[in-house]
Design goal:
The chain is 29% helix and 21% strand. It is an alpha+beta fold. A hairpin with a 2-residue loop joins strand 3 (81-90) and strand 4. The protein is globular and about 35 Å long.
């Protein structure tokens, strides 16, 4: 009984710590489209998946969260990643980015990355 109680206490403490460690006001959902044959490299930042959500702890306001999201659009790996979309959320609320998931202008769209950027939609 004492061993079970100790294990339960440790498990609850770990759960509380993990919940606290990942709680951030600003979350960015990033989705990448890899260049042909470059999936593993392109998706490495998302543990091998084409999309994931990242916490931006330093962004403590909606404006700061949007700024972090726009900065995350930068694509310095045009030989690996063709396009990425970044959809920010602040305190659980989706923010308007001005583009749809494919980067086309959409006043209500949640994506902040413009497909017409010079570092997007190219595989060099």
């Amino acid at each position: 009984m004492k061993k079970t109680l100790t294990i339960l206490t440790v498990a609850l403490a770990m759960g509380a710590w993990v919940g606290t460690a990942t709680a951030a006001d600003c979350m960015l959902h990033v989705k990448r489209i890899a260049c042909a044959g470059k999936d593993a490299e392109s998706y490495k930042k998302c543990d091998g998946k084409p999309e994931c959500t990242e916490a931006k702890d330093a962004a403590t306001t909606e404006d700061a969260c949007l700024a972090e999201a726009k900065k995350s659009c930068d694509n310095s790996r045009t030989d690996i990643t063709k396009y990425k979309s970044v959809m920010p959320m602040f305190k659980g609320k989706a923010l308007v980015g001005g583009f749809d998931a494919n980067g086309k202008a959409d006043p209500k769209g949640g994506n902040v990355c413009d497909a017409a950027r010079p570092d997007m939609n190219k595989c060099q």
